[in-house]
Amino acid sequence: MNSKLILAIVLIFFTVASFAQGVRGTVVDETGDPLPNVSIYMPSERVGSTTNLEGEYEINLSPGEYDLVFTSLGFSRREFKLTIRATWLDLDVTLNPQSYHLREVVVNPGDEDPAYGIMRKAIGMAPYYLRQAASYSAGVYLKGSFRMDNIPRLLRKSITIETNGKEVPMVEGRTYTMESQNEITFIAPDTFNHKVLASRSSFPAGDESTAIGFISSSFYEPANGMIISPLAPQAMRHYKFRYEGYFEENNVEVNKIKVIPRRKSQQLVSGYVYIVQDLWNLHSVDVTSEMFFGDVRVKQVFQPVSENVWLPVLHQFDLDVSVMGVKAVADYTGSVKYNNVEIDDDLSVPGFLAVNTTEEDEAITEDDSPAEDISGSKNQTVIDELLSKEELSNREMMKLARLMDKESGKKEGPQSLEITSTYEMNVKSDSVKRDTAYWERIRPVPLTSIEQESFSMRDSLTRAAKAGTDTTNQKKEAGILKKTGNFLVRGHRFFMADSAVTVRYKGLLGLGNIGFNPVDGWNYKQSLEMWWKQESVHQMSVQADAFYGFAREALMWNVNLSQTYAPMQRGAFRLSAGEASSDFKNSEFAVKPFTDMVASLFFKENYKRYYNRRHLELGHGIDIVNGLRWDLSAGYQWLSPLNNNTSYSFLRKDEVYYENVPQNDDIGVDALGSRKSLTWRTELSYTPRHFYRIRKGRKMMAYSNYPTFFASMEQGVSALESNSDYLLLEGGVRHEKEADFFPALSWAAGGGWFVRNNKMHFSQYKHFNASKIPVRLTGRPAFNLIDDYAASTNDWYVDGHIKYSSPYLLLKNLPLLSNRLWQESLHLDYLHTPLIRNYLQAGYSIDGIFFMGSIGVFAGFEDGEYSDWGVRAVLEF
Predict the structure, then answer these.
(1) Helices and strands counted in the chain (H then E)
(2) Cα angle: 494, vertex 495, 499; to 5 degrees
(3) Is the four-CA dihedral 684, 711, 776, 854 of positive or negative sign?
(4) For 531-572, what is the HEC assignment?
(5) Who has greater pLDDT, 282 or 211?
(6) Which of 74, 240, 435, 492 has the fewest Cβ atoms surrounding its Cβ within 10 A?
(7) CA 734, CA 746: separation in Å to the nearest integer?
(8) How many CA atoms lie within 13 A of 155 on its CB side?
């Protein structure tokens, strides 16, 4: 495992900052022990800083007067008014334990904990605070340290750091440090301009863009990347809350709420959230999550950077890595200075906030004119009524969150379907050439003695890397052998015509070169790909495959060509030609060549049936308007039957393979014979409000909240010696939704009718994703208990699929399984054809096992009577 992988995971979680000059000291507790990660905030500068791991702080400030606020979770706040002159001001600070008060309430047996009433209002207000800031600019400083405490012997050579282009081993117990100074400009909803002003590092922690993921994430989001937020609308399903009192700070009351997961899960956090009374916004967060790679602790401190606008000014992040025997510790601190914060004027302001602001404005201006009517919309009136209640039910909380999301997301005029989310990163040319004086001037968090040693060590590593140039013939020969081996196994990529043409050879000895089936026997493939980039938006691609079937003694080939045009309409022409053994169904269905090869060689089970197909096809596709796509294709095929040519296998050598004839009760002998076939097909598909992105002048479809409707027609034409005469009409609707932290429902329904089926090859029947193979390599909806070709028809069909996925349904409620990032799914699949009447398949599966697999149990019923059951697995690579 390369160190870059671990460090990239680390950097996803946190954010950064920037600052000035003038005061320094140490912060300790009442016993005199240093306090690390104490938040230091200057309201006039709208900037946050922190103490380092040794409790030290040092802030550069210009001469003048400042307010300095020291806060740390669990300790009382302390404020100081400072006058900074021409010399450093030394200020050591002692923080005393925070005293918490309990509100006078009458609690009867069975009464709900007061925390739930507070959290319901905070959850209801979350959509508003998420969108409150329309834009801001900020200085961002990040400092992180990383230490490997244990590296397994087998991994010591592979866990390295890159210095001056050379890989050197990472040393156990040694601290590696990085820091960077950045400028961030944010424009709602998700546009970031990131400028790296200065950066230096003694380890390769990825570039500073990885910090954007944490800056842009928010606990107001229902799911911010990897966890379910305690402020999510469904939080009551996942968390228990306990009220532990309140404290007063800067004329507001802050409630301390303990967050307790209802089950052990990597998607849930434990710890504390602090909620401002009556405003119902976050004051601070201190939570821990047990992830698969270690324990993650995140702290955030919010401050009012504008009237009733609280934004995070300090981020702290600690990680204990423990994976594959690797043990490491990472500590990161980020501080943010907000320069300009603009509020979204189109945002519907809750009545209690608007009243408070109006009253304060009137007090400041002493304006006796009548106050402006701030009653707002009908939804706003309901919101204010809900917020005025002492207690909210779960139903009222969900209603409040829904209305607040609707109001805060409301925009004038039609919403554009183009996703303009952008992230632009600029690195100043001298960003890595800053001297020590620069860092001492701008750094808001002083380096510890160990971190200072880390940067000194970086220079020695650079010198060692420069001195480590290979000079021996033995190392040169090893390098040549390694390159030769990579070429044989992985192939190589070549560039021609000033890199406008790219050619990729896939190698001689890769696993993808070898295949097996009873018809061809062992077969060996060679592949070549070419891309011709004619200009920035037009490209031609060609893929050519040649393979030889040893048992069949046949040379086979395929060539596929694609030419793009009209990039804003995704226009493309396709040309395909070749001759090879082909499955009667196409490759999109359940049994892939690799799984069929394994089943044949180890279990003497051949699921696929083959015929010889020589073809020439031309296709075209284009978006007529956004969301409406038209595809048209036509082709001529020469089709002929094939027989098994080998009985070879690793096991069960005395048994024979199943005959190469599809098992279907409605198939005629003529459907498997030799023929010429001229066919054409057209399809229209429409997805309402399909969002898209534009990248380098090309349109790329993203997502839609609406289903996709489609209709198609396919015809076999009796012309040019073609022996085909059929007409198929199909139509349907599908809506796919990926499961995440919350339940998701995917479904599809369709049907088709062969208006004419006079002359057809079996490959032209309607086939379904059906197979009894125990392991599949695709997660598409499938009929797992029907033989591969048993349901194929040239008459009519109706089918449908429903999949409901959720983080928790049945087994994941068990303690042993609750801490897994798995999903649970319920499946319901329906098929009705002249051969298979009212077939219903019901199933349950656990998905996302090791991020690439699932396993489930399924039962089948035909015309209401039980028919079969089985366990099936899916591996998706």
Answers:
(1) 11, 42
(2) 165
(3) positive
(4) EEECCCCCEEEEEEEEEEECCCCEEEEEEEEEEEECHHHCEE
(5) 282
(6) 435
(7) 8
(8) 16
- Gap between the terminal Cα atoms of the chain: 19
294 pLDDT higher than 60: yes
Contact between residue 758 and residue 789 where contact means Cβ atoms under 8 Å apart:
no
CA–CA distances in Å: residue 799 to residues 257, 385, 545:
50, 48, 35
Half-sphere exposure of 624 (CA within 13 A, CB side): 10
Separation of alpha carbons 9 and 23, rounded Å: 35
Burial class (CB in 10 A: 0-12, 13-18, 19+), 39: buried
Smallest CA-to-CA distance from 84 within 22, 25, 40 is with 22
Contact (Cβ atoms closer than 8 angstroms) between residue 167 and residue 182: no
Task: Give just the sign of the alpha carbon dihedral 394, 397, 402, 405.
Answer: negative
Q: Which of 588, 579, 582 is nearest to 609 (CA)?
A: 582
Please tell me whether residue 24 adopts helix, strand or coil conformation.
strand
Residue found by looking up tokens 């090893």 in the block? 478
Query: What residue type is assigned to position 679 of the chain?
Result: T
Question: Between helices 378-388 and 114-131, what is the axis angle to 10°?
Answer: 150
Q: From CA 79, how far away is CA 854, in angstroms rounded?
A: 56
Phi and psi, residue 405, nearest 5°:
-65, -40
| Burial class of residue 264, CB neighbours in 10 A (0-12, 13-18, 19+) | middle
> What tokens appear for 771 in the block?
């197979």
Which residues are CB-neighbours of 299 under 8 A, at least 6 positions away? 37, 73, 284, 285, 286, 314, 315, 316, 317
Residue found by looking up tokens 């479904």 in the block = 747
DSSP 8-state symbol, 102: -
| Rounded-to-integer distance, Cα 385 and Cα 402, Å | 14
Residue 533: partners with Cβ closer than 8 Å, 6 or more residues away: 500, 501, 502, 539
Closest CA to 334 of 10, 93, 27, 37: 37
The string over 541-580, giving b where at least 16 C-beta atoms fall within 10 Å of a residue's C-beta and e elsewhere, is bbbebbbbbebbebebbbebbbbbeebeebebeeebebeb
Give the residue-averaged pLDDT of 806-818: 79
What are the angstrom distances between the C-alpha of 825 and each of 813, 855, 872?
14, 10, 13
Q: What is the pLDDT of residue 295?
A: 86
| Average pLDDT along the chain | 82
- In three-state secondary structure terms, 850 is coil
Place of tokens 């007409």: 727
For 40-79, what is each residue's pLDDT tens digit?
888 887 777 788 888 898 888 888 888 888 888 788 888 9
| Spatial contact of 762 and 731, defined as CB atoms under 8 Å apart | no
d(CA 187, CA 137): 9
Q: Residue 370: which pLDDT band, with cuts at 50, 70 and 90?
A: very low
Residue in 805, 661, 801 with CA at minimum distance from that of residue 744: 805
The closest alpha carbon to 446, from 63, 21, 67, 14, belongs to 21
Distance of CA 288 to the CA centre of its chain: 21
Average pLDDT value for residue range 500-513 = 86
Q: How far apart are CA 179 and CA 446, in angstroms?
A: 11
* Cα dist from 288 to 208, 300, 381, whole Å: 24, 12, 38
Using DSSP's 3-state secondary structure scheme, residue 512 falls into helix
pLDDT band for position 588 (50/70/90)?
Answer: low
Buried b (16+ CB within 10 A) or exposed e, 841-871: bebebbbbbeeebbebebbbebeeeeeeeee
Residues present in the chain in total: 877
